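Q: My labmate handed me this sequence with no annotations at all. I'd like to see what the chain might look like in three dimensions before we decide whether it's worth expressing. Could you predict it?
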Amino acid sequence: MRKRGLDPVPVPPETDYTMLLERAGIGLAHDRLERDEPLTVRDIVVHLAHSRVTEQRAAEQMELLRRHFADHPDLGRAVRMISRDEDAHLAYCHEELLRLARAGHGRTIRRTLRECALAEIRVYRGVSLSVMAHMGGLLHWPKAKSAALAAGIHAVYAYERLGGRRRMVSLRTPERRNALGGPAESAPEFV
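A: Here is what I predict for the chain of 191 residues:
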């Protein structure tokens, strides 16, 4: 942003995707992750399920940016690098959730993925509408343009609510194995 001569500004609360998800009770709260105590298996399932859902959205958005900006002289390298990271995070979530499902936690994983996906698409719609309203105000969009964009956001929400969320809750063995560099050392007494 500084390269472009732009000053950072605070994120409006209604557009803060991560905090809105946390307030909706999705994933593990930051204070829980920061505590100096071991996570339970349920904590790990909740964290991975939340990550699985949100990484799906991030990977899809980065793929879109990569298609349009991969060859851009200023943005291309960063877009490609971030996209690879999102793909690796998503692959890791798949792999670990499948491992936990094989260990007998499949029902909990399915339920948690569904809850996370439903909350995420609701939060994503709200954030999208808020961002669009802020941009429309800044760019002085005509009401018809804002209404058409809002209708599109609602249509995407309806599609995801009716079945499009399946891409967020399905698990499959990723093509890229050990995407984050191999398994972490485990502490059997906590897993």
